[in-house]
Amino acid sequence: MKTNKYFFPLTAFFTGLVFGISILGFFSFTNGPVSPAPNAGITPINATAAHVFFNNYIVTAAPFNQVIKGFTIDKVQLEAMNSIARENPELSGFRIYMGKDNNSMNIGIVVGVDNLGKDAVKNTIFQTQGQKMSPCPPVCDVNSPIVNN
After folding, report:
1. Spatial distance between the Cα atoms of 135 and 111, rounded to a whole number of angstroms
2. How far apart are CA 127 and CA 110, in angstroms?
3. Count: domains in the chain
4. Could you tell me the residue range of the domain that residue 20 belongs to?
5. Which pLDDT score is estimated for 7?
6. Are 134 and 63 in contact (CB under 8 A)?
7. What is the pLDDT of residues 40-66, one digit of tens each?
8. Across 1-130, where does the E strand assignment appear?
């Protein structure tokens, strides 16, 4: 049986082409950017620890006599809220209390809120990093078109 002189080069070319596309497709879906570890910066705590951290904050908090325009919620607090929502989808919302840990670092205390507006302390409560968490004022975007005319 006589073969065409182009048969082997064309077969090799198409085999290489299919193999190359397959490898490219494989790496396109497996070598994407690595997402952060779930719950990074979120620590589960109990209601007693949350109470201690809240009291640590209250005894050092300055009085605040301005209208609160808004509140900054860090991605870490959002991840804590998402974790609480996955745990109990029946909750109607979330509350973030200001706190200070035992090293006097600002933290957020994230807790679910039930349909009666009560803290769902039987669910997981999270301690989160609170360096970027703050009401507005004092931490505001003074140039925002939302608050400026």
Report:
1. 18
2. 6
3. 2
4. 1-32
5. 65
6. no
7. 678 899 999 999 988 888 888 877 777
8. 42-45, 70-72, 93-100, 106-113, 125-129
